[in-house]
Amino acid sequence: MNNKRNIFLSMVAFAFTLALTSTSAFSNEGLFKTLDTDANGMISEEEAEAHDVLYELFDSLDIDGDGFISSDEFAVANLKK
Questions:
Q1: What is the structure's pLDDT at 43?
Q2: What is the pLDDT along the chain (81 residues), one digit of tens a residue?
Q3: Neighbours of 63 (CB within 10 A)
Q4: Over the chain, what HEC string results?
Q5: How close are the terminal C-alpha atoms of the chain, in Å?
Q6: Which pLDDT belongs to residue 4?
Q7: What pLDDT is stored for residue 81 in this prediction?
Q8: Phi-psi group of 41: left, alpha or beta (phi > 0 → left; psi -120 to 50 → alpha; rest → beta)
Q9: Where does the EF-hand domain start and stop, copy by copy (predicted)?
Q10: Are 13 and 23 in contact (CB under 8 A)?
Q11: How far apart are CA 60 and CA 10, in angstroms?
């Protein structure tokens, strides 16, 4: 069951990457910092509302389920060019 979840999360991350790399806003290297408006090193669900796609996939990217997207979780989406 855990293996299926890992495969699913990998597929979601890949789809997320494809969707976002075609969006000019996501070509910015400082995107994480831009979305992290309180500068605590994490993107909350409220902060993620600033971008529809990120907000829609928030739960899938929040791999540890703590309610935040860390820089490591954000990097999984491979948004930096």
A1: 95
A2: 677 787 887 777 777 665 655 554 444 458 889 999 999 999 999 999 998 888 888 998 899 999 999 988 887 765 443
A3: 16
A4: CHHHHHHHHHHHHHHHHHHHHCCHHHHCCCHHHHHCCCCCCEEEHHHHCCCHHHHHCHHHHCCCCCCEEEHHHHHHCCCCC
A5: 33
A6: 79
A7: 33
A8: left
A9: 49-81
A10: no
A11: 10
Amino acid at 54: L
- Is 11:72 a contact under the CB 8 Å cutoff? no
Cα angle: 45, vertex 20, 81; to 5 degrees: 110
The predicted model scores a pTM of 0.62
Residue 43 bridge partners (DSSP): 69
CA neighbours within 13 Å on the CB side: how many for 41? 1
Look at residue 24 in the predicted model and tell me its pLDDT: 45
